[in-house]
Amino acid sequence: MATNHSTCNQTLPFEESRQLLVGVYSVVFAVGLPANCITTFLTIIQIHRGNIVAIYLFGLSLCEMMYLSTLPLWIIYTQNDHKWTMGPTSCKMTGYIFFCNIYISILLLCCISVDRYVAVVYALRSRGLRSQKIAGVVTSVLFAVVAVVYSPVFFNNIQDSNSTTCFETPLKPSLAVFSIIRFLIGFVVPFIILIFMNYKIFQSIKISYSLSPHQKSKVKYLAIAIISIFVVCFAPYHFVLLIRSVHFFLDRDNSCTFENKTYTVFTVFLCLSTANSVADPFVYVLASENARHEICRTFRAVGVRFLNESKTDSNKPDSTQKTPVDPSLGYKEDR
Question: Which residue ranges does the record assign to the G-protein coupled receptors family 1 profile domain (predicted)?
Answer without folding.
Answer: 35-284
